[in-house]
Amino acid sequence: LDGSHSSDPGGSLSDYLWVQTGGSPAVAITNAAAAQASFSAPAVGTAGAQLTFQLTVTDNLGAESSDAVVVTVNAAPVADAGPDQIVQPGVSVTLDGAGSTDDGNGVSLSNSAAVKPAFSAPSGVTSDVDLTFQLTVTDADGLQSSDSCTVTVSPEAQPGESDASGGGGGGGGGCFITTAGDRGTKGSVRDNF
Asked: E strands of the chain, at which residues?
């Protein structure tokens, strides 16, 4: 909170006082008796919160003036990378981040095709290979959230098999999908969208 532009054309300012006058939850103001004060933004639900703060300044003759400011606390988006999957070697695999949300609404990505990117599973594998992908979503306010899913490439997988119990639920702006780690392969995969 910055009241450093307050002034008194006929004298000098002797006191500053910041108080929260509206919004929930109540927060503790640090340096409430200074021109510049601060507080820790509280955890808020998907609706966010608007907090109102009033600054009262007093000059050297005891005259007072007040002004208020509203601070909007925005909830972070929620990334949902979709379920874990088990696939056969060489098949096309689609990753699905369409379940990601921001403030209860669908995330708007700079490249809408990045919601469901696809890749070809490595062929020629003789044992299970796990590929872990991380989805990071960024909302219009720059807040981010990440979630991951694992694609297991298995020579014993049945067509269309998936593990619906994993992934999801980790928030729109840019989106990238990258292999966070792999097991049983040489090298790694990195795809940017």
From this structure: 13-22, 49-59, 64-73, 84-87, 92-94, 101-102, 105-106, 118-120, 129-138, 144-153, 162-163, 175-183, 190-191
Cis peptide leading into residue 159 (ω within 30°): no
Report pLDDT for 158: 62
Distances (CA, A) of 188 to 90, 97, 118, 131: 16, 21, 16, 9
The answer to whether residues 125 and 89 touch, using CB atoms and an 8 Å cutoff, is yes
Q: Report the pLDDT value the prediction gives residue 109, as an integer from 0 to 100.
A: 44
For residue 123, the model assigns a pLDDT of 74
Q: Which two tokens stand for residue 1?
A: 């909170």
Do 114 and 177 meet the contact criterion of CB atoms below 8 Å apart? Answer: yes
Give 53-107 pLDDT, tens digit per residue.
999 999 998 889 999 999 988 877 888 888 888 888 888 888 888 888 776 444 4
Asked whether the beta carbons of 146 and 172 are under 8 A apart, the reply is no
φ/ψ of 133, rounded to 5, equals: -115, 140
- In this structure, the chain runs to a length of 193
Q: Which residues of the chain are under the pLDDT cut of 70?
A: 103-115, 157-193
